[in-house]
Amino acid sequence: MTGIIRYYLFIKSKKNNMKFMSFMLVTGALTTLVFSCNNSSESKEAPASKPGITKTDWGQVDGKQVYLFTLVNSKGTEVTISNYGGTVTSFVTADKNGKRSSIIVGFDSLNQYLQKPPYFGALIGRYGNRIGDAKFTLDGKTYQLAANDGKNTLHGGLKGFDKVVWDATAPSDSVPSLTLKYLSKDGEEGYPGNLNVAVQYTLTNDDELKIEYNAETDKATPINLTNHSYFNLSGDLSNTILGNTLTIDANNYTPVDSTLIPAGEIKAVKGTPFDFTSPKKIGRDIGLVKGGYDHNWVLNKKDSSLQKVAELSDSISGRSVEVYTTQPGLQFYTGNFLDGKFINHDGKPIQQHTALCLETQHFPDSPNKPAFPSTILKPGEKYHSITIYKVKLN
Ligand code: BGC
């Protein structure tokens, strides 16, 4: 090749590169523009790395489009959420060495979520946790619900809020947030009333994942909304959660029967394995609790203001998560039924005690337990609750 030809090819390839680059820049700008102007557009975008929110097509369920939204804050922390089940699929933060990994379990593909995993990262409704014998009586009428957990109903029934496609909107604000809406029709899963639900996820620049729940109904109905993320703060499922340290601001819990329905009693944790009033390793007393922890703690807070109720710490990664809520209860579940059937996005099987849940909620079976705080939402009332998971380095 002569020098002239080589020079010509160099210039040509440079020009092509330039053309390609300008094409990419214009396309990128247009895509961003389209996305910020029209949230229902079906743009395919690479995962975000700059603060903001991006949206990717993820498949279809029930003839509806499913998306993945990635919220990124100024620290580069990323939370990915799907409008399928309002599922938080990953929550990527840096550990004490700056290594980034997801602190919750999840999958990369929609198909894996369709295999009915045990509610990984999902929004739960209408009723989080169990209602005994899958029925309740309200205003003299008995409502029969789906028995999807032995004779009880669990997490909303056969097709709870974790298995429906929510309508999503993502305003282009400086603090990334995603609003999901769902109309649960009168009679759905046996529950009365048309229930309009809106859940807003926000990722703040302080590494807080804030979840705000709102709902209204046209007939009285029980409601107990929560999120079912499973945490492994080390980001590596070869470490169990038994070495994590947990504090729960609760002097009492609700003991359960053999089917995990509260007996109705509110019992002091003092002197029992349920005492997490000061920081304690989860593995210390778990052997004393048949099956592991899967109970509702009665939070000490006296009203529905937003307060810190729990803190979980992991010494391997140096990460902690603080839990704030307006709710009266916390279901601490040590992943007792996880059996390795599902593979986490890090390629590792999700085994027993490799992840745990801190589900903020009203007490299980409240519709059948008049002594528990009421979970009945009436027409004209507004259901509103807030929970924050704040990640920090120790
Ligand atoms: C319940 C567990 C259940 C798990 C997954 C938790 O909220 O308390 O008993 O196995 O969810 O369904």
Overview of the structural elements:
The chain has three helices and 30 strands. It has helices at residues 3-37, 110-113, 282-285, and strands at 52-61, 64-72, 78-82, 88-94, 100-102, 122-124, 130-131, 135-138, 141-144, 153-154, 167-169, 177-184, 195-203, 208-217, 221-222, 226-228, 230-231, 245-248, 252-254, 267-268, 280-281, 294-298, 307-313, 319-325, 329-333, 339-343, 349-351, 356-361, 376-377, 383-393. The protein is mainly beta. Residues 1-48 have low confidence and may be disordered. The protein binds beta-D-glucopyranose (BGC). Residues 118-119, 129, 155, 260, 294, 331, 333, 337, 357, 359 line the site of beta-D-glucopyranose.
How would you describe this structure in keywords?
30 strands; disordered N terminus; 394 residues; binds beta-D-glucopyranose; mainly beta; 9-stranded antiparallel beta sheet; 3 helices
